[in-house]
Amino acid sequence: TEDFQTFYDFLMDVFGNLAMANYPYETTFLAPLPAFPVRQFCGQIDKAFDKNEDLLSAFNDALQVYTNYTGKVKCLDIASAYDPSMGSQGWDFQACTEMVMPMCSNGTTDMFMPKKWDFKEFSDDCYKKFKVYPRERAAISQYGANRWDSLSNVIFSNGLLDPWSGGGVLKSQSDAVIVV
């Protein structure tokens, strides 16, 4: 069970990172990656397989898009495959104090295992990590999302290649607010 959880966490990290760096050009932002790495990844497994072994082999080839695009990695230790320079502690702290973002999946319209959003569980994890409890609607009240009528001279910009853009402001609520 522990090995499976480590592997599952690794895969979720890879999938998220591929989505965040799915640029139309090569990049080294999170790892050395080809242009359109999600397309490259999915292209390896987007077919029917007669044998489970063939599917596993193809999935390994797909993972190479993220883990070994340069061909220089000789051995991958998934238990220590995270890049500490990414500073995830900073993001985790911000998510626990300012930017609570509900994360969930249903396993039907997405590629992840079903997971319901559980604010209490999230809150308890924040307290264990940082000794803080998040305010669920802090960003909404702090940044005025509940006061659209009082906004003016504001431009919201979104990079639609960024999978986080779905959490951004994508439609203007008034003539005084521009969304690009």
For the structure shown, list the relevant keywords.
two-stranded parallel sheet; mainly alpha; about 180 residues; 6 helices
Q: Which spans of ≥5 residues are poorly predicted at pLDDT below 50?
A: none
Radius of gyration: 19 Å
Q: Compute the number of strand runs.
A: 2
**Lateral arrangement of strands in the main beta sheet:** 1-2
Alpha-carbon distance between the two ends: 46 Å
**On the 0-100 scale, what is the average pLDDT?**
86
User: What percentage of the residues does DSSP assign to strands (E)?
Assistant: under 5%
* Percent helix range: 25-40%
Basic shape:
globular
If helices are DSSP runs of H or I spanning 4 or more residues, what is the number of helices?
A: 6
The H/E string reads HHHHHHEE
Structural class: mainly alpha
The largest sheet is: 2 strands, parallel
What does this structure look like?
With 180 residues, the protein is mostly helical. The chain has helices spanning 2-20, 37-45, 52-67, 88-97, 119-130, 138-142; strands at residues 154-156, 177-179. A two-stranded parallel sheet has the order 1-2. It is globular and about 60 Å long. The termini are far apart.
